[in-house]
Amino acid sequence: MKKHTYPSVLAIAGFDGSGGAGLQADIKTISALGCFATSVLTALPVQNTQGVRAIYPIPYSAVKEQIEAIMDDIVPDAIKIGMVHTAELVTTIANTLKQYPQVPIVFDPVMVATSGHKLIEDSTINAIIKTLFPIASLITPNMDEASILAKMEIKTLADMHIAGNKILQLGCKAVLLKGGHLESKLITSLYFQQDGTVTAFEYEKFETNNTHGSGCTLSSAIAGYIAQGKNLAEAITLGQDYVHQTIYHGKDVLIGKGNGPLNHFFNPQKLIKNDLV
Questions:
Q1: Where is the Pyridoxamine kinase/Phosphomethylpyrimidine kinase domain (predicted)?
Q2: Rounded distance, CA 262 to CA 253, Å?
């Protein structure tokens, strides 16, 4: 009897009890794309659609052991990293993942919540640049996060071009700078590659507050498409298309009193079965 396997994605991120962001968004996204989701919890934020109330840490040894337990058993086809809010946590994750260089990593440098709440300690940024940037296949900062990384204000598309190149010089392999906060009718994101190529993606902007977890969703979607065998450029394109649709299909739904979630399951796919070689 022929045996199969599922394309799998490991999500390493924080918790969101309101279900819109963090590991919950990651698992929903990966599942909706027909992949198998495994997960590692990095932190326990107390939050809802209105904001973050507190962040409780997970012991660093527990994070390391969670990663090793998954990697020893269900080796993922791609890894997504989200919330890492202390330098020690960053170092723990990077040092553990260095043992598995064959697995592509999509890193969403979560620093600022949709509500505007800063989620990251200043001392963590240097650790991220030093240890996580070199092992990540792609990083996906939004404009607020890019401002912190590039140490400049970003208000325009021209600013995004300057910031993206500055971030690329910090040691990243590739950068997708998300332009959702641009004051314009279109959302423009820029994909920067080490060879100097910059690719622009434009999408219609919807009038909605339901964007909670959009960054988590995008990085997970890109990882999901990589797990399916797409190259990075294809995965970025498909991932953004997916997020655009999740926002469109959830824009008129009222869940919570603040920034509502996306509709991750507007068109869920069955789990993909790949033949075992």
A1: 16-263
A2: 9
Q: Judge if pTM exceeds 0.70.
A: yes
Say how far apart CA 132 and CA 114 lie, in whole Å: 23
The pLDDT tens digits of the residues spanning 26-75 come to: 999 999 999 999 999 999 999 999 988 988 999 999 999 999 999 999 99
DSSP conformation letters of 12-43 = EE---TTSSSHHHHHHHHHHHTT-EEEEEE-E
CATH of the domain at 219: 3.40.1190.20
Question: Which H or E run includes 221?
Answer: helix 214-227
Backbone angles phi, psi at 157, to 5 degrees: -65, -35
Domain residues for the domain of 54 are 4-275
DSSP label of 268: P
Model pLDDT for residues 224-274, shown as the tens digit of each residue: 999 999 999 999 999 999 999 999 999 999 999 999 999 999 999 999 999
